[in-house]
Fold this sequence. Notes:
The chain is an alpha/beta fold. The protein has helices spanning 5-15, 36-39, 43-54, 72-83, 107-126, 153-174, 181-196, 212-225, 292-296, 324-329, 333-336, 343-377, 383-406; strands spanning 29-34, 61-66, 90-94, 131-135, 177-179, 231-237, 244-246, 250-256, 259-264, 298-302, 310-315, 318-323, 331-332, 411-420. The chain has a five-stranded parallel sheet with strand order 2-1-3-4-5, sandwiched between helices. Helix 6 (153-174) links the parallel strand 4 and strand 5 (177-179). Helix 5 runs parallel beside helix 6 (153-174) and helix 7 runs antiparallel to helix 8. The longest helix has 35 residues, at 343-377. It is globular, with a radius of gyration of 23 Å.
Amino acid sequence: MKTPLALLLLPLILACPLRADFLVQPNDVVGIGGDSITEQHLYCAFMEDYLLMCQPTEGQSIVQFGWSGEQAPSLLARLGTDVYPFKPTVMTTCYGMNDGHYTALTDAIADTYRKAQTGIVESMKAHGVRVIVLGSSKCVDSKLYASRPAGDAAVYNKTLGALADIDKDIAAKEGVVYADVYGTTLDVMQKAKAKFGDDYNFAGPDGVHPRLNGHLVMAYAFLKALGCDGNIGTITVQGGLNQATGSPGQQIVSCQGGTVTVTSTRYPFCFNGTLDSKDPETTAAITTVFPFNDDLNRYMLVVPGLTASKAKVTWGATTKEFTAAQLAKGINLAAEFLANPFVDQFSKVNEAVRLQEAQETLLSKMFMHSAADWELNFAPGTSDSFAKIIAAGMAQHDALFKKAADLVVPITHTIKIEPES
């Protein structure tokens, strides 16, 4: 019989108290709102992956509310039907792309956006959302956006930057959290194109909707705003190579002659592709131009007091060589070993999360959002029938989330350290 994930994590959580600046607390419901970029189920899936596997919190659940083509006023109008039934205690939003109307900013556009975003914050506060993360939109691709009718990336990025400033101002006035998705994505896009060439696809083919590479950057901005600290785990092996300790979530099973066996309930975040790939459907290469691993994905091996000048480290099927000084300081296994023992299970969890999030979109669009209008305009007195359908859909959502969470099983793996003269 498989032990539930929450029971496995509980002693680790008690041994390592939650930091005050990590905004996701036990039993929180984390909601993720946004437009078609959210409905792609990519950055929000990466966020859910991270919260489930990398920085898990007891009893949490995650649900996304992406809606294609949506603007902030539309979210404000549907909060009661689509969002509040899930009783979110933490909410992130990502609007602005459609709100800017793909043109130069006008006073009317800015005023409408400010009013709607302020209304969203005020409504969420009134409905018990404890943590509100007001995220700006991502930038548009500086080259590929030109494929759109009258597409001028410089003009529209200026608009999106101005809307981001409005978000930041609202967050400060309302005392909520601001996630600088616009500034982060613009900075990373510029660095990626400088490294990989101006044709590097950061959001294509329309210049708006990113692929996996851009979505990883968006997830980074939101996870940082939520206070995720990136301390996945530290395994310390003494110079004699027969004694090791692990941080919470990393249990040392054995350590003998430089071979360390560890059982982990906290995973490093895993990537696909190679560090030099220009394929936008891969995530490894983009990490070379922004500090995802440094800030959010530190899975450290520390070997102080090694008498040899260097050593080979084998993790999974990969072997790499490091100096004694590097090992004493600590090497980040998550960054150094892309193909590692967590990759397969990480992928399985991600697939289950994507399935869960696809169901959420169907549930909110086809049933929850439409039920009130249908009863009012076409079928008076049918609220009980709709309630049963919606309840069944929410129960299925809970089951799909549980299926994803239950896939986060302890991983036992081995790290081998071989000193060299």
